[in-house]
Amino acid sequence: MDGALYLGVDGGGTGCRARLEDAAGTVLGQGIAGPAATRFGIEASWQAIETAARHAIAEAGLDAAQVGCIRAGVGVAGIGRKGARAALEAIRHPYASIAFTSDAMIACLGAHGGRDGGIVIVGTGTCAIGRIGGREMKFGGYGFPISDEGSGAYLGLRALQHSLRAHDGREGGSVLTRELMARFQDDPAEVVLWMDRSTATDYATFAPLVLRQADQGDAVARQVVQDGAEHVNGLVRALLAEGAPRVSLIGGLASAMEAWLAPDVRRRLSPTLGDAVTGALALAGRR
């Protein structure tokens, strides 16, 4: 096996994926492993990265000399935590080179074929990431509930707030508010108990209901989704204002929310060209 070899690794918070390719883009091997987010510790993060990489290398049948020719690109969830990048970069490895960035940035690189552009992630949370002319930028994504506007968690929170106000008689109710309150036995105290132990992921479980009711014309649901969509509009426009030549919407709620975006924003969206591992390969140097 001659020529350059490239290893791309997407080290996410729920799992790790690796792909080994040659300079022509031929897939030589793939591997998977457990979560690689730095919140689990640097050692655990690196172990997941190496496990996925070893599986890909084993599938390709490389010997030690060939492994030494690999140029690796790795995106890691939580690499922005204080000291995380330096700790990862200090680890000894067998490759010719290794480059680290965030999992969001490799998703951005993958979406635009390794070229300049931006992504707006719409899932449990929201965030805008861009790379333009060598500059990296981020808007939002500071965490729920102080940020992540337009996300699944945001839709769930806003829907519950409307439901409680409707229960009090402070505003008109709807099918959505009545269905949500029924899940808590029509008892605000039950909502409070649930709130005390709930995370952004728990709030986001209500997002499919909110979106479904909005599509069916529920007035409260439509207001919640329209408010959320306006925040997503703002994230897209922030990237465009910075000069992003392409902007893509990604994440579990991307397709559902896209229909609610402003016409001028929808017109400027571009389809993704590749996945996060493709972005990691671009980070490694494969074009």
Automatic annotation (TrEMBL):
SUPFAM superfamilies: Actin-like ATPase domain (SSF53067)
UniProt-listed Pfam families: BcrAD_BadFG
Record keywords, A-Z: Kinase, Transferase
InterPro entries: ATPase_BadF (IPR002731), ATPase_NBD (IPR043129), Euk-type_GlcNAc_Kinase (IPR052519)
Stretches assigned to the ATPase BadF/BadG/BcrA/BcrD type domain: 7-261
GO MF entry, a single one: kinase activity
Superkingdom of the source species: Bacteria
PANTHER family given in the database record: N-ACETYL-D-GLUCOSAMINE KINASE (PTHR43190)
Identification of the protein by name: Glucosamine kinase
Organism this protein belongs to: Nitrospirillum amazonense
